[in-house]
Amino acid sequence: MAILIIEDDPKTGDYLRKGLRECGYSVDLARTGTDGVHMAMQQSYDLVVLDVMLPGMDGWEVIHRIRERGDMPVVFLSARDDVSDRIRGLRLGADDYLVKPFSFVELELRIRTILRRGIVRESDVFEAADLRLDVLRRKVTRDGVEIALTNKEFMLLHLLMKRQGEVLSRTQIASEVWDMNFDSDTNVVDVAVKRLRAKIDGPFQQKLISTIRSVGYSLSA
User: Fold this and answer.
1) From the UniProt annotation, which stretches of this protein bind DNA (predicted)?
2) Could you give the CA distance from residue 177 to residue 191 in angstroms, rounded to a whole number?
3) Is the alpha carbon torsion for 112, 115, 120, 121 positive or negative?
C-alpha cells in the first residue's frame, strides 16, 4: 500500500513517514501543497494524509485538485479543530479528519479501516418525506419550496438528516454542531431545535422532527 503524506512541519512529516513505513506502507512525503499535488498527479497512491495549513497551496485547494484526478482516499490531519473546518473537509471529499495533536495508533487504525473498506463517500443530498437537503449547494427545500436557514440551523438539520431515525441526545447535538460540552443549564440546543422546527415543520401538516422526552431529538419521515 502506497501512502502520500503532505505535511510542511518537518518533525511531524518525518515522524509520520517513519511510523507508517514501520507499519509496512510505502510512503512518500511532500513538504508543500504544490509538491503534493504534483506527486499525486504523477503516481497513484492508495491514500493521502493531508495537512490543511500548507505553504504554496492549502489543503482545501489540494484536495480539490486531487478530486479532479479521481477518488484517492484522503485523511486530513490538522491543528484546525473547529466543527466548521471538519465539515468543510468532509464536504470537499475527505474520508476522515483527525485533529492535532493526534495519536499515531489512532491514525494508523483509521488508515487501515479506510483501506479495508474502500472508498465510501457521504451522500451530498439527504431526503425525508418531501424535505430535501443539498449539502454542496447548501440548499434546503420542502415540498419544492426553498427554506432559508442560518449556518447553525443548516448544520443541525444536516446532522439530524444524516442520522435519520436515530435519537440524538442534547450532548451529541451540542458536540457535533457547536463543538461544546453540553451544560444542563444551557438551553442552546432546545432553542435551536425550536427555531428549526418552526421553519421545517411549522407550515406543513406532516411533522418530521420529534422530541424524545428526557433524551433528545430525532428526525424521521
Assistant:
1) 123-221
2) 13
3) positive
Most distant CA atoms of the chain, gap in Å: 59
Which is nearest to 142 in space by CA: 217, 218, 210, 197? Answer: 197
pLDDT score of 120: 52
Cα separation, 36 vs 100, whole angstroms: 20
CATH code 1.10.10.10 region(s) in the chain: 125-219
Which fold is adopted by the domain 125-219?
Answer: Arc Repressor Mutant, subunit A (1.10.10)
Confidence (pLDDT) at 212: 92
Superfamily of domain 2-117: Response regulator (3.40.50.2300)
Amino acid sitting at position 98: L
DSSP per position, 86-137: HHHHHHTT-SEEEESS--HHHHHHHHHHHHHH---PPPSEEEETTEEEETTT
The structure's pTM equals 0.55
> Does the bond joining 101 to the residue before it have cis omega, within 30 degrees of 0?
yes
Nearest CA-CA partner of 174 in 190, 161, 162: 190
